[in-house]
Write a structure and sequence with these properties.
With 146 residues, this protein is mainly α. It has five helices and no strands. Helix 1 runs parallel beside helix 3 and helix 3 runs antiparallel to helix 4.
Length: 146
Amino acid sequence: MKNLYLSILISMTVPILVFGIGDGMYVGFWYYFAVPLVILGVSAAFKLTSSFYTGVSTAIAISFIIYLNINWTAERPDGLLGLGHIFSLPGAFLLVMITAYLLKRKNNRLPAQNLILGFFSFALGFFLNQIVLCNSLIYCGILSFD
């Protein structure tokens, strides 16, 4: 149960930062609540250990902070930056659901392993979707291979 509260606390850090520093992705304050709510809410149907959700929420928060920091530190902030994050979520969502399903089937209750798998399922899904996106639809600088 303690990890569940930790997961909620981690999910709330980004909206607090956005409220204090500003919405660097220009997507609206609601977005920083909706993404964790949807991903964690749907994956909660698998009833895994709370450490899995802590790993997922940590990866979500890191993805937000990386994107937000780009515009927070830029001389000329990019108004369409949030689209890169939004369009990379399907890969993250898909890999989190596949991982949750596999963990449920294996009946895995090891907290450390669930934390790591939760984190990397979101991070890897997001990154792979980002690579495809950056090499087909939008230019992403170093992530674009051409």
